[in-house]
Design goal:
The chain is of the alpha/beta class. Helices cover 50% and strands 14% of the residues. α1 packs parallel to α6, α8 (162-190) packs across α11 (237-253) and α11 (237-253) runs antiparallel to α12. The longest helix has 29 residues, at 162-190. The protein is globular. The chain starts with a strand and ends with a helix. The structure holds nicotinamide-adenine-dinucleotide (NAD). Residues 6-12, 29-32, 35, 50, 63-65, 69, 72-73, 91-92, 117, 120-121, 235, 239 line the site of nicotinamide-adenine-dinucleotide.
């Protein structure tokens, strides 16, 4: 299939490389010359603009920082794409922006869906991402084989916007659970428990969760977690703050009493508004320890 890939950053670069590896003809565009150079090395045909990239493509995949970037990009490319092109946005954006992007594409005579991901740069590189898809049935069927070349699990969550809804719900759980695990480690330290003893208990008890067993916020118990490499990401605190902000907005606008989610959004916004921004989100354990 001929695919245009716009946004070849930390996530987009390895995702596009996996599409090339699966035998697709991939054209790509990014504003960053460095990202373009890396993508070219991975077999992506580089173009001079996003509009050039989508010309002749059957599917357009975007992996951009925010909803504003996606809507701007669609504004530049919708007219250049052939009628009926399938637009799949894999960025994490507001549900309202996802629906606006879908509606703009459909009004221009195309098909569109949202397919945000979970699994981070490691999952993008290993093609083990989870895709959460908001799409009409026929569009889901059309995009599934492509997403399967970049991930291990593809879930049809509902109509356009439903993928983004699932994504922000998941990350609200993740943000709150990372804070809870971090608070427990700092409390355990004060009570004289070793990190390993607490890990050995909780990882096989009812407090078990991904934040503990895969992304453990203290060095030692999980050798591959970012805590063992001075919290090099991984998933940055800035991105977690962004996703929790989207979840908090959605909770407020839909009247949900998501008190832990709102507090997690505040704590990550404060942590990411400083040196924590570029560090893995598990580094929040250090801010909790400093305040204790
Ligand atoms: P990134 O900043 O590394 O990459 C974004 C790329 O988009 C950059 O290379 C930038 O130059 C490019 N870009 C911005 N505007 C553009 C435009 N108009 N045209 C072309 N290129 C443009 O970010 P990332 O980590 O790859 O994240 C991308 C998306 O994936 C975000 O929405 C993020 O929330 C989501 N996400 C990231 C992770 C992660 O672990 N990094 C995990 C899940 C989801």
């Amino acid at each position: 299939m001929t695919i245009a890939f716009v946004g070849l950053g930390n996530m987009g670069a390895p995702m596009a490389a996996n599409l090339v590896r699966a035998g697709h003809d991939v054209t790509g565009f990014d504003l960053s010359p460095e990202a373009l150079g890396q993508a070219e090395g991975n077999g992506v045909r580089i173009t001079r603009s996003a509009a050039d990239a989508v010309t002749g493509a059957e599917t357009v995949i975007t992996m951009l920082p925010s909803g504003r970037h996606v809507l701007d990009c669609y504004g530049q490319v919708l007219a250049a794409a052939a009628p009926g092109t399938l637009f799949a946005d894999c960025s994490t954006v507001d549900v309202a922006d996802a629906r606006a992007a879908h509606d703009a594409a459909v009004s221009a005579g195309h098909r569109a869906l949202d397919a945000p991901v979970s699994g981070g740069v490691a999952g993008a590189t290993a093609a083990t991402l989870t895709f959460m898809v908001g799409a009409r049935g026929a569009d889901f069927a059309a995009v599934s084989p492509l997403l399967s070349a970049m991930g291990r699990k593809v879930v049809h969550c509902g109509d356009p916007g439903a993928g983004q809804a699932a994504k922000i719900c998941n990350n609200m759980i993740l943000g709150a659970s990372m804070i809870a695990v971090s608070e427990a480690f700092v409390l355990g330290e004060r009570l004289g428990l070793s990190h390993q003893a607490l890990f050995d208990v909780v990882s096989t008890a009812s407090g078990q969760c991904w934040a503990l067993t895969t992304n453990c916020p203290v060095p030692g118990p999980v050798p591959a977690s970012p805590a063992n490499r001075d919290y090099r990401p991984g998933f940055t605190s800035a991105l977690m703050a962004k996703d929790l902000g989207l979840a908090a907005d959605a909770a407020r606008s839909s009247g949900v009493a998501a008190e832990l989610g709102l507090r997690a959004a505040e704590l990550y916004a404060a942590f990411a508004d400083g040196p924590g921004a570029g560090r893995d989100f598990s580094a929040i354990v250090n801010a909790i320890r400093e305040r204790s």
